[in-house]
């Protein structure tokens, strides 16, 4: 889709780079319902997720489908050597010391780093842990350490996929991780290696073993968490675990209240649909405010009953693009009001730790976004527009009505006519309708893969110099900052600072 950035507010080069760092990192631990430092003082973690870097996502950097397909498509067009060059330079520019300085200047003290297992393991050599994966993570951890920013290591994609979505990079719409013990064993093996590598490192706040797991039986997730906890603790007894609830970090119904895992923070994700392009927009009514609180209270009920810390691992609205949407300014004003109300709720719940989604992208949701006039955006914008028109990216599509009316509504009607007696049955997750299940398979898997080949052709014939310019579009000095969003986040950090002074 077209990148939904608000009107350019400031280039990143004009953003503050003051090194307003937090107190030096020390080993964090759980103490009752709090996260505390080595001196026993409460630490509220506030930061953002670095999605799109070590775990790429289609709406964040503009391709369609799944990351491994995107990488393979570019390798076929560019050749493996040039493709590797492009991706390595993209990763280099995506987060640097300049980004860490901006991050710290906002009062943030924690960066959640999503990563894909493929950086550490090849599927054809599953027993080998690659040093190159540690090299990528170590660079980020070292940068964060210089600015006293804690890091949460988030395994965002595992073999087979722990959920049904594109961001687990399975290439399909099933979570096969739960069906094959071998996949589960490999993820345990990876955490064993990570624990050995990062044991004793105070910059690491803790380990987020699985992002948004979705186990239809619920029991396999709990068993895997117990295995992961024992494996990690045998090597690294100090670092906290950040454990997502089931069904995309929103369901704790199967979690035993009387048996929370030790030194563990439990994590929900708290997206509000009122912050997305759906009919109900946030108007600030008492009813909507009550709905927000009720939703969050439901998600954290387990943590309150088990008396463990709460971490909201992902949340945040998306933003409309004033270059393409004449109502964008009014819409974004509502989105910012929603964001402020959610921040207020998190403060009300005894200063919940949180990580907003997300730090950087091509303009839909990020605190920082690639300049629309950059080489990268000039190259891919027509393709992104086509994705928008075809409704290929679930997360990054504002309006699918045209393609639905022309293609999918009659198509779905014919499909439903063939299985009328089964339409009331619900596939997991049960909140997804038949229409949504078809959309996932047809649009987000099949058609997205075909269109990924189309995007790759945009890179054909590019020289290394041209590829460097494309990758450098993601460098902070070549990006824009979403200043209104960042100012609200800074204000929230200041409220906490004044409260704890």
Automatic annotation (TrEMBL):
Gene3D superfamilies registered for this protein in UniProt: Glycosidases (3.20.20.80)
InterPro entries on file: GH (IPR017853), Glyco_hydro_5 (IPR001547), Glycosyl_hydrolase_5 (IPR050386)
Chain ranges of the Glycoside hydrolase family domain: 96-357
GO cellular component: cell surface; extracellular region
Source taxon at top rank: Eukaryota
Keywords: Cell wall biogenesis/degradation, Glycosidase, Hydrolase
Any one GO biological process: cell wall organization
A GO MF label: beta-glucosidase activity
Family classification: Belongs to the glycosyl hydrolase 5 (cellulase A) family.
Descriptive protein name: Glucan 1,3-beta-glucosidase
Organism per entry: Stachybotrys elegans
Phylogenetic classification of the source organism: Eukaryota, Fungi, Dikarya, Ascomycota, Pezizomycotina
